[in-house]
Amino acid sequence: MKATVLAHPNIALVKYWGKRDDALILPHQSSLSLTLAPLSVTTTVEFGAASDQVEINGHTAKGSERDRVLRVLEAVRGEAGGKLGPAKMVSRGDFPASAGLASSAAGFAALAVAAREAAGLKADPKVASMLARLGSGSACRSVQGGFCEWRRGERADGTDSYAVQRFDAKHWPELRMVVAILNRDEKEVKSRDGMKHTVDTSPYYAAWVKDAEAEVPRAVEILQRKDLQALGELAERNAWRMHSTAFAADPPLCYMNPATLGLIQHLREQRKKGMPVWFTLDAGPNPVLLTDAAHEVAAEALARACGAVDVIRCVPGGDAELKGEHL
Ligand code: PMV
Predict the structure, then answer these.
(1) Residue nearest to atom 8 of ligand 1 (CA)
(2) List of residues 6+ apart from 233 with CB closer than 8 A
(3) What is the 18 CA–ligand 1 centroid distance (Å)?
(4) What are phi and psi of 221, to 5 degrees?
């Protein structure tokens, strides 16, 4: 009745930006990401508590955060035939929320896998991915490691909208992601709200959907042949296009700040000098640099020279995994 799971966050190379169904969290387009180690979130779930309890990083969760966790637990109770009572969930991340990386992706992936295990259900990455998706869309890509593709699916009930692993973490061990934290402030507009505003008001949105969908198979083909330059170029143009849809929203939405653009400009200059380094950018000001093991130290130095207050060097991470010790 009790299980603990560790999961890693992920960074999208082809972003998810916009829902076609807000309740079921179904995206307009497919996306593709890399799971990031060593960053992780560990979550323990135990059924049989007196009432539902949700504790995240030492605090009792409230409001929508609590509601999203309860929604996942409720779905697991349903899958287990309704015989399970209230649950206690305790979750702890080993990286700052200020990193600009969605700790919620790792947290909901760990929750989905742990809750199913605690309920005695047979491990199933596809079902766990759909469950994680109910908490946070991008979480469906953190159930498995390596490179995962979230297929948008066609059905209205969401039963074909989940992530599949295209390559595992060992496929390209030299790949590096260097998170450049330029600003620790919490972002003003959450991804959830920013993407909804973009879908509702940006005249560029339809073009984004068409383009992003077509980029996913290209990204898979590039990953197959491990071509860093092609992957870097694809990740950059996809990030620019996601942000362009947001710039064109009404009122406009801009997640970048001057330091973000300064760093991007500097990357261009370094590339001209032969350094293999590109960026991607989620809904915040902190770029993630894409490079290889031979250049990760130089990439960190470059980020610091451009004002990064902290830098986290990441490698391809593995699947969500069961742990023997509980929180
Ligand atoms: O899953 P959410 O609601 O945290 O949205 C994630 C959106 C982006 O991080 C900007 C892109 C992505 O695919 O992860």
Answers:
(1) 282
(2) 278
(3) 9
(4) -65, -40
Domains of the chain: 2-168 (3.30.230.10), 175-316 (3.30.70.890)
pLDDT tens for each residue of 245-275: 999 999 999 999 999 999 999 999 999 999 9
- Over the stretch 131-140, which tens digit does the pLDDT of each residue have? 999 999 999 9
Give the ipTM of the model, two decimals please: 0.99
CA of 301 to the centre of ligand 1 (A): 27
State in Å: Cα 136 to ligand 1 middle.
8
Ligand 1: lining residues by beta carbon, under 6 Å: 12, 15-17, 31, 102, 104, 136-138, 191-192, 282-283
Query: Which of 22, 111, 191, 195 is the pocket-test mutation for ligand 1 (most atoms within 8 Å of CB)?
Result: 191
Decide if 148 contacts 33 (C-beta within 8 A): yes
Return the ligand 1 atom nearest residue 14 CA: 13
What pTM did the predictor assign?
0.96
Report the DSSP pairing between strands 288-292 and 2-7: unpaired
